[in-house]
Write a structure and sequence with these properties.
about 150 residues, mainly alpha, Multidrug-efflux Transporter Regulator, Chain: A, Domain 2, 2 domains, 3 strands, about 55% helix, binds FE2/S2 (inorganic) cluster
C-alpha cells in the first residue's frame, strides 16, 4: 500500500495533523481523497515533509520552501539529485544570511552606548544613507510621500 492516512503520515513524519493540513493548504504537500472522502497521502510525502522541516530548521519560510518546490517542477518526489540541488542552494543562502548578520552586528557596535538613532550618523537607522541621496533635510516630508 503506497497511500497512508493523515494520522499515519503525522506519526511517521513527527508532526501534528494540523501541521500537515497547514502544509497542504500552502500547497507544499498533496493528497487524494479515497472513496470515503478521506485524505490519503502517497508515501513520497514523508520525504517532502522531511525536506520542509529541515528547511524550516535552517530558517527558510514556508513561502521560500514553496518557491523552491515550484522550481523543482512541483514533482511529488524529492530525488537525491533534488536534495543535492537544494542543499547546495541552502548552503549558499545561509552563507549570505550569516554575512549579512555579521555586517549588522558590526554596525551595531557603533550604536552601543550611543542611542542617537540619527538619520545622519547611525548606519542602522539609515542604512546606505538611502534618504541622503534624495537631498538634505526632511526629504520624506517635502517629497510628498504619504
Ligand atoms: S544609535 Fe547612534 S550610531 Fe546608532
Amino acid at each position: 500500500m503506497s497511500e497512508i492516512s493523515v494520522g499515519q503520515l503525522a506519526r511517521r513524519a513527527g508532526v501534528s495533523v494540523a501541521t500537515l493540513h497547514f502544509y497542504e493548504q500552502k500547497g507544499l504537500i498533496h493528497s487524494q481523497r479515497n472513496a470515503g472522502n478521506q485524505r490519503r497521502y502517497n508515501r513520497r510525502m514523508l520525504r517532502r515533509v522531511a525536506v520542509i522541516k529541515t528547511a524550516q530548521r535552517l530558517g527558510f519560510s514556508l513561502r521560500e520552501i514553496a518557491e523552491m518546490f515550484r522550481e523543482l517542477g512541483e514533482q511529488q518526489d524529492i530525488t537525491k539529485d533534488n536534495w543535492q540541488q537544494l542543499s547546495v542552494r541552502w548552503h549558499q543562502a545561509l552563507t549570505e544570511r550569516i554575512e549579512a548578520m555579521q555586517r549588522l552586528r558590526d554596525e551595531l557596535n557603533t550604536c552601543i552606548g550611543c542611542g542617537c538613532l540619527s538619520m545622519d550618523n547611525c548606519r542602522l537607522r539609515n542604512p546606505d544613507d538611502a534618504l541622503g541621496e534624495q537631498g538634505s533635510g526632511p526629504v520624506l516630508w517635502e517629497g510628498g510621500e504619504s
